[in-house]
Structure formats: structure tokens, C-alpha cells
Write a structure and sequence with these properties.
This protein folds into 4 domains: about 140 residues, 3-Layer(aba) Sandwich (Rossmann fold), CATH 3.40.50; about 240 residues, TIM Barrel, CATH 3.20.20.70; about 55 residues; about 80 residues, no CATH class. It is α/β, with parallel strands linked by helices. The N and C termini lie far apart (about 55 Å). Strand 16 and strand 17 form a beta hairpin. Helix content is about 40%, strand content about 15%. Helix 9 runs parallel beside helix 10, helix 16 runs antiparallel to helix 19 and helix 18 packs antiparallel against helix 19. The protein has 22 helices and 17 strands. The longest helix is centred in the C-terminal third of the chain and has 24 residues. It binds cobalamin and iron/sulfur cluster.
Length: about 575
């Protein structure tokens, strides 16, 4: 049996980090762990291949090779998933779909032969059995939760790790809380299910043995869902492992804010190599926290909890939401103040949305306020229900938040604020690789010369270099992130029609017309107010060609790096870029 795994493309969103990935010459942030796990559950004798559309395009030849195309993904990838299904149908390839996107809303997808929903540990084996007997059903689903102690090590051999910024490891599934808007409990349950210490070490070993020496993200819904087991078994083993291997990975995860109440756990996490934690803070307004039953955040001094985590050595990334029924008109200013004071540099502020089957979804349906299916992206200026606050007021406030916290001045202020509070992990070696130096060089040109934040960039550059040298890599990373966030939000503002017309992106039609172009040409373009358009063309011959154009001025091309042997550039690509830049400028 020949199985082709296909992972749909992400749109350009906050978490896609697309504009930041160019700097480090990576194509995607994280690998498709769900598909790699499913691959490990298939019989050994089945042949498997994987195409991640965030890395390279899918060809009809690959589709024709497969007996079955196994498609996964999350809601935000729905558009790309639909296009893949249509292509499979076009060439007669059979489609098997699973993962959170389809588990949440499979009824919306036509052209799929078999849906294997929920967790594959439970629903895949009966499909395989039925297939062997020649009688596979259309739908496999379950109301049970999988025993993750049986989950195999992901099949890392199916991907080329060097295209990704981070590798992933899942220790637990589920979260003990039940926030009204969150579909984690719908998809993965309220009782955290955890892997054994042996499994965690086996997964760390698998990454280590494949030569990975960079960031590893523990993709748990709430890493501290079962603290007892973490403290007694898991963290001591990770600490021992990381010390024996001389700190090969920096770790990150997601956890609830009450991690700050447990200094012992916090200390152990830092010793184990955790450097960053994503925390759902949601709102500085107590009434809104009560409304959504954000239990770990209720009645606490949010700022001081964040500081506790930062002082312990963790970089806190925060998720925030506006649009709660209890949000007062002052929420926008309060949130801006909170984010600025907290020094949370990576602050994802989204509009409240109701994912399907959540408690919020059910309540709004009852109140007849539901409008449509959630797009899966809560930063695209859309809401799928009627909010209590006037929509225009809410959108204006939301624009104000984004316009403020990602403006170069406020963003860099926050970076300084964070670097002054943060106490980075001591002990682990600081690894500087060529790719980091390369990213630094690119940032010096693009952020330090071309982009409008150049003054802030240099201030941060010299301050961190001379006053906080250990922080220097983090400072440059934040400068690059800031560039990405600004791009994403400015693009969303345009796409939402809130700031005028979207500049036409005619290269897209070209990219669709030719898979080669889609694979090898990626164009990121700035908006007129940035005064600069930048095109990063990635091709197999040249590592990076950056075409920088200033509206109404001459374009200039920076060929940044030649891969040996340096072959010819396709001149029409450059000509095309110049032509596009002119049309954008006019
Ligand atoms: C890591 C992660 C990310 C990473 C990227 C991960 C990546 N490349 O895969 C980042 C941080 C980028 C991310 C971003 C976002 N994420 Co996210 N993310 C996760 C997280 C925490 C872990 C994913 C993972 O690796 N799981 C481990 C694997 C083993 O689990 P799994 O994928 O569910 O796979 C199992 C089954 O689903 C099934 N399965 C999966 N695929 C397939 C395919 C087939 C054919 C079959 C048969 C079975 C099958 O079998 C597997 C084994 O049981 C999940 C939560 C979770 N617990 O999974 C959320 C989750 C996937 N994210 C979610 C969301 C909403 C987002 C964002 C939109 C958040 C935001 N507001 O911006 C963004 C959008 C991304 C973007 N780029 O635009 C939602 C998706 C909900 C939905 N119904 O689709 C989830 C489920 C969290 C939630 N709130 O419920 N995310
Ligand atoms: S704490 Fe986080 S993961 Fe848990 S239910 Fe609330 S929002 Fe979801």
C-alpha cells in the first residue's frame, strides 16, 4: 500500500512567522507532528511519503503514485485543504482525512473518501482492518480518548528537518480547565493524558539521533496539567538527559499562568532547558475572565505572575482576546497598558470567536448570536458572532491595539522592558551557527537600513551588545519577529478593507500557474506606507535574492547568497518582480 501524507499550506498569519523565517533561511516554523504520528501507526510494510505544502508544492505525479492520500491539518488551513481535495479528485486519488480540522467540521468537506476522525490511535486501526478486508467505511469516529502511552515515536524520517525552525514533541494531551471559547477540551478532553518518562526520552533521543540541535517545542495544550508527574518523573529525567547531552535543545511550551505559583516546578523547567512559555492571559479585565471561566487567571495579579515567570528565566509569550460581553469601552487602552508594562514581546491579540462545539458556541447559538463558521484565525479581523459592543467600536479598538503594540516605538520599548527583567538561563552553552550570523547580517541590512524601524533597531543592537551581551541573540530575534508581526497586521488591515484597497498581488496567479514558481519564488511585499517593497526570491540555484524596491523609485536587487555552484538566475523572475513593484507603487 502506498500512502502519501499531505499537509496543507498555512495562510500568512501571526503564527506562520513567514516574514521572519526568510531571515533564518527556513521554510516553515514547525513540522506536521500529527501526520508523522499517524505515519508511525501504519503497518511497517506500507510505503509512505510526505509533502508539506509549506515546504514544497504537490505534483500530480506524487498524487498518482499514492493508493491513498492522507490529509491532515487545522481549521486555519481549510482553504488549502479544499484545494488539495479538489486536485486529488481531479486525478482520481483517494482521500483519507483526519486531524483537528476534519474532526471539528468534516461535514463541510466534499470529495473525501474516508474520514478518520478524533485520535488516530483509536480510529485508524479499524480503518486498516476494514481496508485489508476490502470494505473500508466512510466515517470512523469515537467518543473515547486515546491512551497516549501507546502513541509511537513520530516518523521523523519523512521530513527534511533543515527546512523547519523548530521540532515538536508532545508529552500530554488535554487540559484540566474548560475556558468557554477553547476547543482543546472538545478535541482532547479535560483529563490530561500523559506519556511515560521512557516515551519522552525516546522522542528526545529520536530528534537528537537525527542530528537536531536547536529549539524543541513541547506542543502540549497545558504542559503543567499534571504537575505531580512532571515534578516526580518527567522533569528529573529531562534534566538528567539534557545535562548528559550538554544541553542540545532549547525548549518551549504552553502552560497556564498558575505555573507562577509553583517555584519548584518553575525552577525544574528552567533547569530542563525551557526558555519560553506561551500563556493564555486573555484579558486584564476580571469580569471578562469570569465570563469565560479562565480559572487559572481569575483573581490574581496578572502582571506580577508574568514577572515571576520572566525572572525565573522564561520568555513569556501571551495570548489576549477582546470582544467578551463584559469588555468595557476602556478595554483597549487597558490592554495596551498591560501588554506594554508586562514586556510580553510576542503578544497575540485576537478577536473573540466561537470554534464549533465549544461552550461559547453553544451559548451563542442559544442566544441566536452566531453568524458563521470560525475561520480558524482569530487575528484576521473576523468574528463569527454578534458581539455586545458595537462592531465598529470593537474593530476600531482592535485596530488601535495592533497599531500601538506593533508600532516600532512601542514594540521596541517592550523589547527593552523584557530584556531588563528577564534573567536568561545560566549554564547552557550559547550556540552561534552560520545561519544565525547570516540572519544577523540580513537584519542589519533590512531592518537597520531599509525598514522604517532602523533607528530603534540600532538602539537595541548596541544596547544589547554592550550592556546585555547574553541577550544579544534574543534582541535580534525579537527585532526580526517585530518585522513579521507588523507585516502580518498591516496585511490583515488591508485585507479587511480597513485601511484602503489591498495592493494587487499579481504574482499569485503566476505562482498558481506554475508549481515551479510556487515552490521557488516566494514574495513578501511591504505596504506603501513602509516605503519599501521587498521581494525574497528563494530558488535552488541562489539561496536568496532580495529585491528591494522603493515606490516610484528605481528598484535594486541584492543577491545575498550563492549556493555552490553559482548558476544562472532566471532573468524573467527579476523582470517580473520589477514590473510588479511598479504596479504596486502606482
Ligand atoms: C503546535 C500547535 C501549533 C503550532 C503549529 C503546529 C504544526 N505545524 O503542526 C503553531 C504554534 C504554529 C500553531 C498555530 C495555530 N494553531 Co495550533 N496547535 C498546536 C497544538 C498545540 C499541537 C499540534 C500537534 O502537533 N499535536 C500533536 C499531534 C500528535 O496531535 P494531532 O495533530 O491532533 O494528531 C492526532 C489526531 O488529530 C489525528 N490526526 C491528525 N492528523 C491526521 C491525519 C489523518 C489522515 C488521520 C487519519 C488522523 C490525523 O491523529 C493524531 C494522533 O492521535 C494543537 C493542539 C493539539 N493538542 O494538538 C493546536 C491546534 C491544532 N491549533 C489550533 C489553532 C486554532 C491554531 C491557531 C489558529 C491559533 C491562532 N489563534 O492563531 C494558529 C494557526 C496556525 C497558523 N500558522 O496560522 C487548534 C485547531 C482547532 C481546529 N479545530 O482546527 C488546536 C487544535 C488547538 C485548539 N485550540 O484547539 N499551532
Ligand atoms: S487553560 Fe488554555 S488550553 Fe486549557 S481550557 Fe483554557 S484556554 Fe483551553
Amino acid at each position: 500500500m502506498r500512502i502519501l501524507f499531505v499537509y496543507p499550506e498555512y495562510p500568512d498569519t501571526f503564527w506562520s512567522f513567514k516574514h521572519a523565517l526568510h531571515f533564518i533561511s527556513k521554510k516553515s516554523g514547525q513540522p506536521p507532528l500529527g501526520l508523522l504520528t499517524v505515519a508511525a501507526l501504519l503497518p511497517d510494510e506500507w510505503e509512505t511519503r510526505l509533502v508539506d505544502l509549506n515546504i514544497k508544492p504537490l505534483t500530480d505525479r506524487q498524487l498518482r503514485w499514492a493508493d491513498y492520500v492522507f490529509l491532515g491539518g487545522m481549521s486555519v488551513q481549510a482553504e488549502s485543504a479544499r484545494a488539495i481535495i479538489a486536485r486529488c479528485n481531479g486525478v482520481g486519488a483517494k482521500v483519507v482525512a483526519g486531524g483537528p480540522l476534519f474532526t471539528a467540521r468534516h461535514e463541510e468537506f466534499e470529495g473525501v473518501d474516508h474520514f478518520i476522525l478524533n485520535e488516530a490511535e483509536i480510529t485508524l486501526p479499524p480503518f486498516i482492518e476494514d481496508l485489508k478486508r476490502g470494505q473500508p467505511k466512510r466515517l470512523y469516529t469515537t467518543s473515547r480518548w486515546a491512551d497516549v502511552t501507546t502513541t509511537p515515536v513520530p516518523r521523523w524520517g519523512l521530513i527534511n528537518q533543515r527546512h523547519y525552525a523548530t521540532m515538536n514533541l508532545q508529552y500530554s494531551r488535554g487540559c484540566p480547565y474548560d475556558c468557554e471559547f477553547c476547543d482543546i477540551t472538545v478535541l482532547y478532553g479535560r483529563v490530561p493524558r500523559t506519556k511515560s518518562g521512557d516515551q519522552v526520552i525516546a522522542e528526545l533521543d529520536a530528534l537528537y539521533d537525527r542530528g537536531w540541535r536547536d529549539h524543541v517545542f513541547f506542543v502540549d495544550d497545558n504542559f503543567i496539567g499534571n504537575r505531580g508527574k512532571l515534578k516526580k518523573e518527567i522533569l528529573p529525567r529531562i534534566i538528567r538527559w539534557t545535562e548528559e547531552k550538554h544541553h542540545p535543545f532549547s525548549l518551549g511550551t504552553e502552560a497556564s499562568l498558575n505555573l507562577s505559583d509553583d517555584p519548584e516546578l518553575l525552577g525544574m523547567m528552567v533547569r530542563a532547558g525551557f526558555e519560553q512559555v506561551f500563556v493564555g492571559i486573555e484579558s486584564p479585565n476580571e469580569e471578562s475572565l469570569k465570563e469565560c471561566r479562565k480559572i487559572p487567571n481569575k483573581g490574581r495579579n496578572l502582571l506580577s505572575s508574568v514577572r515571576t515567570l520572566q525572572k525565573a528565566g522564561l520568555q513569556v509569550q501571551g495570548g489576549f482576546i477582546v470582544g467578551f460581553d463584559n469588555d468595557p469601552p476602556s478595554i483597549f487602552d487597558t490592554l495596551i497598558r498591560f501588554i506594554q508594562e508586562s514586556g510580553i514581546v510576542v503578544a497575540m491579540v485576537g478577536l473573540l470567536n466561537a470554534p464549533i462545539n465549544t461552550r461559547l458556541y453553544r451559548r451563542l447559538k442559544q442566544e441566536e448570536r452566531l453568524l458563521k463558521t470560525f475561520t480558524g484565525n482569530n487575528t484576521d479581523f473576523s468574528m463569527n458572532f454578534i458581539p455586545k459592543m458595537k462592531v465598529e467600536e470593537l474593530l476600531q479598538g482592535y485596530r488601535k491595539i495592533l497599531g500601538t503594540i506593533y508600532s516600532p516605538r512601542e514594540y521596541y520599548r517592550r523589547v527593552f522592558q523584557f530584556l531588563r527583567t528577564h534573567d536568561p538561563r545560566k549554564g547552557g552553552p550559547v550556540r552561534i551557527r552560520f545561519v544565525h550570523l547570516w540572519a544577523l547580517a540580513k537584519s542589519m541590512v533590512l531592518l537597520g537600513v531599509v525598514a522604517r524601524e532602523r533607528l530603534y533597531y540600532w538602539k537595541l543592537f548596541f544596547w544589547s551588545l554592550f550592556r546585555r551581551p547574553r541577550h544579544f541573540p534574543t534582541a535580534i530575534t525579537f527585532a526580526i519577529y517585530g518585522f513579521h508581526f507588523r507585516r502580518v497586521f498591516e496585511d490583515s488591515l488591508y485585507a479587511a478593507g480597513t485601511k484602503g484597497n489591498t495592493a494587487s498581488i499579481s504574482w499569485r496567479s503566476l505562482a498558481i500557474a506554475s508549481p515551479w514558481v510556487a515552490n521557488h519564488l516566494s514574495v513578501s511585499f511591504g505596504l506603501p506606507e513602509l516605503l519599501v517593497h521587498e521581494y525574497v526570491i528563494t530558488c535552488p540555484i541562489l539561496s536568496d535574492i532580495t529585491v528591494i524596491t522603493i515606490p516610484r523609485c528605481v528598484a535594486f536587487v541584492v543577491v545575498t547568497f550563492f549556493k555552490p555552484p553559482p548558476l544562472k538566475v532566471h532573468p524573467w523572475l527579476l523582470l517580473y518582480s520589477l514590473q510588479t513593484s511598479q504596479s504596486v507603487a502606482s
